[in-house]
């Protein structure tokens, strides 16, 4: 695919773990995510670790679709180059939508509620996202076939740190990490975190996880 396809690169992100490129292949925009070589690691360990994490992330992106969560469609996985070719979602990040003063507060609260519901789905299936932030959620305009109206749909991305766990502690930590970044980034969105919790409980999230959050936060506070 990389040798025979039309290639026009545009870096979307260059991170410590991976690069994200926007490419046009056969007339279609796609995202190419490649895990970078870690020079400090033994090459005999680094290559298989990057292959494993690439395959794992692809499996996670595909798995959550079966649960009704929207993620970018995967077109190709190349474990030997630690690369995932996936759908390019032309949409802003939730972070920027929630910071946009032109967007109504009622819509922002709806999106926060929807995010809570998605996290509840993850936890019901014992998936820990590992990097829940409003930067790892896209907001795409999408046609709702039930009422034939166009609505904002959340698209979840970046499952590179995701794991499976049956521990309430891990689910609580997942939410604590989101709360820390959410309250810091969206401090003026007073009801936002409350709507995330509300959506979480409405869609099967357990109260004991929210209770465990308080315990986790208290340990962090006094550590």
Automatic annotation (TrEMBL):
Catalytic activity line of the entry: L-threonyl-[protein] + ATP = O-phospho-L-threonyl-[protein] + ADP + H(+); L-seryl-[protein] + ATP = O-phospho-L-seryl-[protein] + ADP + H(+)
Domain of life assignment: Archaea
Enzyme Commission numbers on file: 2.7.11.1
Statement: the UniProt record of this protein carries the keyword Oxidoreductase: no
GO annotation, cellular component aspect: cytosol; EKC/KEOPS complex
Protein kinase domain mapped to chain residues: 6-223
Record's keyword terms, sorted: ATP-binding, Kinase, Nucleotide-binding, Serine/threonine-protein kinase, Transferase, tRNA processing
Enzyme class: transferase
InterPro entries, per the entry: Bud32, Kinase-like_dom_sf, Prot_kinase_dom, Tyr_kinase_AS
A Gene Ontology biological process term: tRNA processing
Keyword Nucleotide-binding: yes
Stored NCBIfam families: arch_bud32
Family designation: Belongs to the protein kinase superfamily. BUD32 family.
Listed name of the protein: non-specific serine/threonine protein kinase
Organism lineage: Archaea, Candidatus Iainarchaeota, Candidatus Iainarchaeia, Candidatus Iainarchaeales, Candidatus Iainarchaeaceae
């Amino acid at each position: 695919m990389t040798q025979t396809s039309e290639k026009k690169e545009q870096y979307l992100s260059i991170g410590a773990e991976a690069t994200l490129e926007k490419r046009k292949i056969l007339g279609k925009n796609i995202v190419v995510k490649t895990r970078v070589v870690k020079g400090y690691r033994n090459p005999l360990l680094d290559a298989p670790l990057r292959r494993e994490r690439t395959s794992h992330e692809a499996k996670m992106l595909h798995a959550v679709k079966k649960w009704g969560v929207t993620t970018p469609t995967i077109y190709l996985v190349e474990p030997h180059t630690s690369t995932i070719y996936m759908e390019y979602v032309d949409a802003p990040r939730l972070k920027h939508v929630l910071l946009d003063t032109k967007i109504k507060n009622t819509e922002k609260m709806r999106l926060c509620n929807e995010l809570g519901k998605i996290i509840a789905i993850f936890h019901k299936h014992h998936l820990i996202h590992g990097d829940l932030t409003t930067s790892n959620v896209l907001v795409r305009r999408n046609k709702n076939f039930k009422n034939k109206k166009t609505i904002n749909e959340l698209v979840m991305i970046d499952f590179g740190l995701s794991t499976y766990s049956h521990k309430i502690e891990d689910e609580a930590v997942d939410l604590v990490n989101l709360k820390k970044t959410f309250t810091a980034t969206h401090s003026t969105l007073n009801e936002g975190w409350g709507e995330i919790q509300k959506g979480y409980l409405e869609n099967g999230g357990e109260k004991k996880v929210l209770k465990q959050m308080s315990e986790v936060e208290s340990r962090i506070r006094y550590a």
